[in-house]
Write a structure and sequence with these properties.
mainly beta; eleven-stranded mixed β-sheet; 4 helices
């Protein structure tokens, strides 16, 4: 029996990768956006996972709990199955991510309320384990002449105002990425290496203009 819910597409924005050098210094790299699709499980599929889903019971009788349970197989267009999500009558969503090395599903704990947060937990767990998913390939943008006043932050002190909480609000020196992608590297003032790479200009503001 298939539950009467349609697949849902979720895009996890601004996925990042972290790398520590031999001195323990962390460098963050913007990887890109990753889109996955949540496919509802049937009752038979859910029954195979009762050894996990029964732990989500919020105190109702077991029959009611199992009838209220919903589950999703999370798929990526190129990588296939990447994880599982389960949600009962409560707000918790249990997350399992698929490890392609072991061929096993591994727990990534619980998130609160929204299955899209569970999808993000799967994408980030795989990224941290070295099994990052292919990023979305956006359509080629329409090229318009750049205005004469286009922002150029190269060599300037800038305030980071993007989505990375570790960096938000801090001041850095901006340089063009050494890879030639046209985006920016952020250097801590006086540092010997970049703290973040592939940063969009839209995530930056001149330090003098930030409150």
């Amino acid at each position: 029996m298939r539950l009467a819910f349609a697949p849902t597409t979720v895009t996890v924005r601004n996925v990042t990768a972290g790398h520590r050098d031999q001195d323990g210094r962390l460098t963050l790299t913007h990887v890109g956006d990753v889109t996955v699709t949540l496919h509802p499980m049937s009752r038979d599929e859910l029954a195979d996972w009762e050894w996990i889903t029964d732990d989500l019971n919020i105190g109702v009788d077991q029959t009611t709990h199992r009838l209220a349970m919903r589950g999703w197989t999370v798929r990526h267009a190129r990588a296939g199955v990447v994880g599982l999500l389960f949600q009962g009558a409560g707000t918790r969503v249990h997350v399992e991510w698929y490890d392609p090395t072991s061929g096993e599903f591994l727990s990534s704990g619980n998130v609160t309320r929204h299955v899209r947060h569970g999808a993000a937990a799967i994408v980030n767990a795989r990224q941290q384990a070295g099994h990052g998913l292919p990023t979305d390939t956006p359509p080629a943008p329409v090229r318009h002449p750049e205005p004469a006043h286009a922002d150029n932050y190269e060599g300037l002190h800038v305030r980071y105002r993007g989505s990375l909480e570790e960096l938000h609000g801090d001041t850095f020196n901006a340089e063009r990425c050494a890879c030639g992608c046209g985006l920016y590297e952020l250097w801590e003032i006086g540092a010997r290496g970049p703290i973040a790479r592939h940063v969009r200009g839209s995530s930056l503001a001149p330090a003098r203009a930030a409150a």
